[in-house]
Amino acid sequence: MKQSVPVAAPSIRLVAFASSIGATIEWYDFFLYGVVTPLVFSKLFFPNYDPVVGTLLAYTTFFVGFISRPIGGIIFGHLGDRIGRKGVLILTLMIMGVATFLIGLLPTYEQIGIWAPALLLFLRIFKGIGIGGEWGGAVLMAVEHAPESRRGFYGSWPQIGVPAGLLLSSGAVALLSLLPDASFLSWGWRVAFLVSALLVAVGVYIRLKIFETPAFAAMKEKQRQAKVPFLELWRAHPKNVLLGLGARYIEGVTFNIFGVFTIAYVTTALGMPRQVALLGVIISSALMIVMLPIGGMLSDRIGRRTVFGLGSLLIGVLVFPSFYFMEMRSPGLIWLAIAVPFALVYPMVYGPQAALFAELFDTRVRYSGISFVYQFSGIFASGLTPIIATELLRVGDKAPWYICIYVLVVSVISALSVFAMRETHTRDMTLDEVDRERSIGRMPPQQQSA
Predict the structure, then answer these.
(1) Which has the closest alpha carbon to 212: 93, 354, 83?
(2) CA geometry: angle at 371 spanning 133 and 76, to 5°?
């Protein structure tokens, strides 16, 4: 019993901050790689192709890394449910950091030929696998350590990694853009990848100071780990897996419409300077750092389903006036059009999401459950969204209204998914379904004695 106190003893703020470090590194690299790909990788790693083909090949390495995330979610979800959250979380952070650092050291095509793009592809796969397990572990360290009444609030801290990573990568690119083109291509771009080692060092140092989560420690003490968590997940929680995939649909679509697609839309379709769209995303990211904890806190007070579902539907409605104001081609209106749905409403979805998904599953399969739901849904909710939006813009003859209808349909799907869930914000996360059924007397006597 003496160890039950120190398990919860570390400041929950320290635990939540430690969880947010890995998420920040993840998104820092995500945005950085996306920006550097057409500027650097298409020229230094695929120089024998024309510019368009070189860029497409470079983006292929980006997409492959994205596809490998569900694999990492399954692998590290298994380990996290079998041996614990803390050790796996440190391991995934180191994998991510090492892969990012090594990308900054890669020789170019001119130096080692075909091995250059091959190594870049390998590191993207390696990093994608690490990222696949990072988010689930970061979320569980925060949510399972948090007091029951504040799981939404502290679960939102790892989510802050999205705007924080965007701001860091934007700042890095802005500084490196001051270099002459020759210097940027020869060594400048490498600096942005190499400095991630500092974030990793800080993250590992902090994570070594925290304890295993109380929910996992209690389960391990009872020796109730699932033999194959991923199979147990589908046996025990198939409905919640499907509802989680549906709920996350609007979150991935919203981020990629307003955080990624609008940059290209404002620049190409509207003919505005790229800096206008980038500044709109940066302003929204800064506001989001404040709004995400508020979204999580609201879900603690009035329920996950209410906040998430309402946020989902609001996004579906607000996307129409958002694109309408962008069409006016005024920088101020463009910033407002991005900020309202992205900085003010999106946190109602992304803030409570960590706690919502964690509460869907029992402790013995929770790491596997949230990792699979988040990473697998990322393929259709996030990875395909810019492609779908680009095609809908073409079909609509450069008018954005088909895109708006698509977002509205997705918002309804996600709202229906989350409203079909059982409200869980008061759930005791140390109790699994068997324990919970026993505690309220629903289990037949023969099963209670089993």
Answers:
(1) 83
(2) 35
- From CA 421, how far away is CA 426, in angstroms rounded? 14
16-25, 96-105, 257-266, 308-317: least confident range: 16-25
Contact of 66 with 379, CB cutoff 8 Å: yes
For residue range 19-43, list pLDDT tens digits in order.
Answer: 888 788 777 877 777 667 766 777 7
Instruction: Judge residue 442's burial from the number of C-beta atoms within 10 Å of its C-beta, 0-12 exposed, 13-18 middle, 19 or more buried.
Output: exposed
Supply the Cα-derived Rg of the chain in whole angstroms: 22
Q: What is the DSSP letter of 153?
A: H
Burial of 121 (0-12, 13-18, 19+ CB in 10 A): middle
Structure token digits, residue 178:
């001051």
Contacts of 97 (CB under 8 A, 6+ apart): 25, 196, 197, 199, 200, 203, 204
Mind listing the pLDDT tens digit for each residue in 264-313?
788 888 988 878 888 888 899 999 999 999 999 999 999 999 999 999 99
pLDDT of residue 134: 86
Instruction: Give the pTM.
Output: 0.85
- Computed over every residue of the chain, the mean pLDDT equals 85
pLDDT at 186: 83
| Contact by Cβ (8 Å): 18, 207 | yes
Round to whole Å and give the CA distance between 417 and 249: 10
Phi/psi region, residue 179 (left: phi>0; alpha: psi -120 to 50; beta: rest), is: beta
- Determine the length of the chain: 450
Question: Nearest-CA neighbor of 142 among 123, 119, 160?
Answer: 160
Structure tokens at 326: 């962008």
Contact 88, 76 (CB under 8 A): yes
Q: Which of 75, 95, 92 is nearest to 135 (CA)?
A: 92
